[in-house]
Specification:
By secondary structure, this protein is of the alpha+beta class. It has a domain of about 70 residues. The longest helix is centred in the first third of the chain and has 13 residues.
């Protein structure tokens, strides 16, 4: 079985290639022409009857900020507060580095539920302000 392969490779190794004469110069490859990129289409104008989502705001940002995923905070809310979540829009919640470092000395960083509600996009929470004094870790 291997004898057939041996004969085949022996013939290929012993004979010069018939297709390319020794006196010809190698052909030079030309670089393909660059493909022009399509111009980007302008963004469609927002519909006037559809309200745009509210931007995520921080109550009092000072200095550098720490951005935390809002959905991660919403997943860790205590049961009474998690019952007030209507949607999980994504985005970030920001807190000042100075405030976080100051509170870390006590072992945890906490904000009031009112601050979280105000900094979240509209429609994230119910409009019930009964739990606004609760602290969120």
């Amino acid at each position: 079985m291997f004898g057939a392969f041996k004969k085949l490779f022996a013939k290929l190794a012993g004979s010069p290639p018939a297709s390319a004469p020794a006196t010809e110069e190698p052909a030079h490859a030309t670089a393909p022409a660059p493909i022009p990129s399509a111009p980007s289409a302008p963004a469609p104008a927002p519909k006037p009857d559809v309200p745009s989502p509210a931007p995520v705001r921080v109550a009092t940002p000072q200095g550098d900020l720490i951005a935390l995923p809002l959905n991660e905070i919403l997943l860790r809310l205590p049961t009474p507060l998690s019952a007030m979540v209507l949607s999980r829009p994504g985005g970030v919640f920001s807190i000042s580095v100075d405030l976080a470092v100051e509170q870390l000395r006590t072992g945890a960083v906490r904000i009031s539920f009112a601050e979280l509600r105000q900094a979240s996009p509209a429609g994230t929470f119910t409009d019930n302000a009964a739990q606004d004094d609760s602290l969120v870790d």
